[in-house]
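Comment thread on ticket #2218

A.B. wrote:
> Attaching the input chain for the structure job we discussed in standup.
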Amino acid sequence: MPKTAKYISLFILLGAITGLTLGWAGKTQIQEWLQQVTSPLNQGRAGTAHGYADTVEKVLPAVVRIYRISIDTSANLALLEDPHYQQFVAGELVAEQGTAVGLGSGVIISQDGHILTNHHVIAGADRLEANLNDGRTAEAEVIGIDPETDLALLKIDLPDLQPALIPQQDQSRPGDIVLAIGNPHGLGTSVSMGIISALGRNQLGLNTFENFIQTDAPINQGNSGGALINSAGQLIGINTATSHNSQGLSLAIPISTASQVANSILQNGKVIRGWLGVTAELVSQHMTGTLQQHDEQEQIVVTGVYVGSPAHKAGLQQGDVITGFDGQPAIKARAAMDYVAGLTPGTSLNINYQRQGQEHSATTTLGIRPISQ
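C.D. wrote:
> Ran it. Output below, let me know if you need it in another format.
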């Protein structure tokens, strides 16, 4: 065999051996990679869900479904008053009654069974039932209501209750992830997720005292009174309302407000607030005809004074413009009203106001704000 042919044969043999070796090594590496990917041990690592299931699971025992049962006997009364039917029902009870059931949610806040919910959830109820996530059911007693914040405090008598975790100091910020838990449309306990869009929303005309958390977490009918929690599973709000005209705009009452209301009801049987005794209106650009700057002071015009009220005793009159309380300018009407309401009845209040362009001041003693029904 010529030398050239021998060299060619040798190169072909060496190439074949090298190819087989590299192929075997590559195949081994590929097999090892496939084995790592498909091994049960790795599936456990790669398949771990980075969600909020554990957080929700801890809170679910504290969220209850509330059923408002209202009985309408008007049809039966009309039947009894009809002379034609009196002869047939005389001496007998009419058993058939019209019953309406309303849906809502609530949050257990104590091991004694106290539940926070919305006032509009339980308003007009003849009977209230609370269904727990573990399947237990109990009749709920109304401990107190506060229509001006749309809150109510209920109580159930059941053992081994798990209350929601309430933060000592809520440090929520816009952009924080939140979860809304409730009973939307009566489907049962459900969870939706969103973020905090804004804090301190007010002047929406929903409640007398407003300080809402705005979120894009869906809050549907039946979710009212349910829990708004942060990613740590802490209760930061009571779900209250949603906008039917806008997507991603829901509102919740901060737990700081809800806790104050609950504590006041527990201590006093009702919410006690300071009362000046005026009705007032914010002077806006629609009244003045000028655009209002962001930092421009708003005017609080007195539109009415209750006879015998602290404002009446201080000499305030319709048309007066309140400019400040206790030396602080009343820049925002809502904030000024909240300041007065937050004072203890019997507290002395200094009022600065204008009448026909002249500055005046007066001092009065606050009364107890009447309870709205």
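A.B. wrote:
> Thanks. Noting for the ticket: The longest helix spans residues 3-38.
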